[in-house]
Design a protein that fits this description.
The protein is of the alpha/beta class. The protein has a single domain, classed as NAD(P)-binding Rossmann-like Domain (Rossmann fold). Helices cover 41% and strands 13% of the residues. It contains ten helices and eight strands. The protein has helices at residues 18-29, 52-62, 77-91, 114-142, 153-156, 163-182, 210-220, 228-235, 274-285, 295-298; strands at residues 9-12, 33-37, 67-70, 96-99, 145-150, 188-196, 246-250, 253-256. The protein has an eight-stranded mixed β-sheet with strand order 3-2-1-4-5-6-7-8, with helices on both faces.
Length: 304
């Protein structure tokens, strides 16, 4: 196969289904050799879908592409290093990583257990670190590579009953920026995508009101394959000058997201007291406050 990624090798985690699967298939269609990683786990992280990675490899090979399966857990640093080793051993190099693996254990904060917080952060945030760290050594040796991390508007903006997921996903955005800064000298890029798509992750959304039912209906129209083009561009030679950015992809829309910067300031000669903070600082700064929105409040128009 020939295409935009001809000659490149891509590792996609959590690629046994949903967004990861479609990115792996699309990458192979563009000429990349693909390491298809999937633990074969349920949405909550329990092993229940053994063979998911192998099934995607079979699809790629049936279409004339090259791929191998890996069933390691991204939460295990040794397993992450093995993913990179598998890529280099099978295909001679590694050019791009898509950190897509994830689980959900939703719950309101006052009911969330340590175990549910820990499990989600371990897969999303630690998983992105583990795989990126393992790939960094190979990228530095090659003097080039691309890291594409999946963040979420649940972290970038906010969402109910997802403190663990939101914390991990916002942490991934900061991790990506640090990687972009630290590895720039070796021509390594690092970017984030906040995907909107119906997948294993979003299929757990509770439908208990007509409004939620309508929201889910709209989500079901957003296919995971729509995320792939942006991810493949960021992995390609054409995307080598794009780094440290946060994108969102929703159906046929692509957004570049803002990143925290000062919006207003106040100064007082001699410093502040609690009283002058109340009398002067807060009234002056209030116009710059961010509303307590959730993702759906910000992305409040129909996808196009």
């Amino acid at each position: 196969m020939t295409g935009m990624l001809t000659g490149k090798v891509m590792l996609v985690t959590g690629a046994g289904g949903g967004i990861g699967r479609d990115i792996a298939l699309a990458a192979a269609g563009q000429g990349a050799a693909v390491v298809v990683n999937d633990l074969g786990a349920s949405l909550k992280g329990d092993r229940s879908e053994a063979g998911a990675a192998a099934a995607v490899v079979a699809e790629i090979e049936a279409a004339g592409g090259r791929a191998i399966a890996n069933t390691g857990s991204v939460s295990d640093p040794d397993a992450a290093r093995q993913m990179v080793s598998d890529a280099v051993e099978a295909f001679g190099r590694l050019d791009a990583v898509v950190n897509n693996a994830g689980i959900l254990r939703d719950g309101f904060f006052h009911k969330m257990t340590y175990e549910d917080f820990d499990a989600v952060v371990k897969v999303h945030l630690y998983g992105s670190f583990n795989v990126s760290r393992a790939a960094a050594d190979q990228f530095r040796a090659q003097e080039g590579g691309a890291l594409i991390h999946m963040t979420s508007t649940s972290g970038l903006i906010g969402n109910l009953a997802q403190a663990n997921y939101s914390a991990a996903k916002l942490g991934i955005a900061a991790l990506s920026k640090s990687i972009a800064l630290d590895l720039k000298r070796w021509n390594v890029t690092s970017n984030c995508i906040a995907p909107f798509a119906w997948s294993r992750m979003t299929s757990s959304i509770k439908v208990d009101t007509p409004e939620q039912a309508e929201r889910v209906r709209k989500l079901q129209e957003m296919k995971p394959a729509k995320i792939a083009p942006l991810a493949l561009y960021l992995a390609s030679d054409q995307g080598r000058d794009v780094t440290g950015q946060i994108f969102a992809s929703r159906n046929n829309e692509i957004f570049v997201m803002s990143q925290p910067r000062p919006v207003r300031s106040v100064h007082r000669d001699g410093g502040w007291t609690p009283e002058t903070v109340a009398e002067h600082a807060m009234p002056a700064l209030r116009a710059g406050f961010v509303p307590l929105d959730v993702s759906a409040d910000v992305f409040n128009w129909d996808p196009v």
